[in-house]
Amino acid sequence: MSILRTGPGFRWPGGARVGVIFNIAYEGWSEGQVPGIGPMGNPLKPGFFDANAASWGKYGAVRGIWRALEVAARNGVTTSVMTNGVLAKLWPDTVRAIHAGGHEVVAHSYGMDVIPVYLDEAGQRENIKRTTGLIADVTGEVPRGWISPRGTGSPGHTALLAEAGYLHDGDCNDDDMPYLETAGGREIVRISLTMDVNDLPSSIRYGNNARAMLQQFEDAFSALQHRETQPVLMDVTIHTHVYGRPAGAWVFDEIMRQVVATPYVWRGTRMQAAEWLLAKRTELVPGA
Domain 2-35+49-287's class? Predict the structure, then answer.
């Protein structure tokens, strides 16, 4: 394995030092499975079906994805939408709408319960093939980006993605910037999925209200512009079953409004970031 990373002089399109990616996590679970967490916070005893958590998760497909796409359209922002294969199977109209809106469809495993590290190599290959095929059948385009549930692949999963033709993945968290990795003899762009401005840990894990995520963003965004000197890429992420709801969607809207109004900040999709990195590969330096 070899890695090439960006140096201090790297810039995003237009000469921007700061880049922002808006992610929408559109998540579903395999048939008969439910989210491991829910809005009540106290899990049921093992072995019992949690109808509350199941219904909470289903909101993303019923209402949340449409609201998130409306917010993006209102602000003229193109997003990267993490999409499980099971949603292409059960809610194909939603996945078509994502693609038709010009957003990047990022493969997100078959379901949130299908985590690569739990699978053997054959199982990982089959999950990649199944997920890729379901999304491609609905959109007419093979997805080129992948993020596993929890951003958790396996020690060999990145090489399998590169082998399957993926251009980028987000199963990493070790850099502020994308980097180019050679895995299994093939190149793939790694783009960290950062948790700093992410509705699920903010609201579900830490119990913050929506305004707290806005404050987190504003503080971080200001620091990136006025205190940092290195190139950086910032994630802003909502889940359609969490801040796809009215009580949180306004924060996504407000963050987009602020980013769009800020000069000298690049915004784009994960695919666009990967393609730009590859176009600038002569500027990359060996890293660990």
Answer: alpha beta
